[in-house]
Description:
single chain; alpha/beta; Rossmann fold; Arc Repressor Mutant, subunit A; 2 domains; 5-stranded parallel sheet; 4-stranded antiparallel sheet; 9 helices; about 45% helix; globular
Amino acid sequence: MHTVLLIDDEERMLNLVELFLSPYNIACLKETSGEKALEILKKKEIALVLLDVMMPYMDGWQVCQKIREFSNVPIIMLTARADKSDLVKGLNLGADDYIAKPFDEGELIARVNAQLRRASVNDRSKKAAIYFEKFILDAEMYALHYEHLTTSLTYKEFYILKALISRPSKTFTREELLTAAWEYEAEIDIRTVDSHIRNLRDKLKKASFPTDIFLKTVWGIGYKWN
Length: 226
């Protein structure tokens, strides 16, 4: 059984999401406070976080940012706002997915199961690391190593990099990278890939990786690792 942490200041929404998930052998921990949710994540084994954006005191974006300081747990953000700038902001802060309220029960289940399935497969398979020159893509730590440097990755960043590094010099279209990182049918803006690439570049640059040398934009097509 997977344990999912639900973070929302509305008890009604917490109970509704639990009602949707419980038939699928998913245990739900419910928390209305971002601060208390962070404490839970540091103490318990959590498979996935469903995080509301609009919360008092500490909003979902702040909570997401705090989580990424110590954990790579998959995060799906929930919001009543339909502004695409919110989507970009969430992705840039390290969220793995984003669902607008009111959401369809089937879509929620599909997205949750996709995140849990991907995490479970990697826990079981213990895949070998992928090497490219001085880079090591670590499938167990969800991290990228370069010489003495290391940076952690979100699930989406990991699978985008895995596709790129596994086939160096191949130009991947945005559609191909979307397929590599999202394994379920859903209406996802193709530019979501750009947000993840931008976030990945910023992360690698801050960690002093030679990002500009290897992670290339092929204008009008997509991206490649060269």
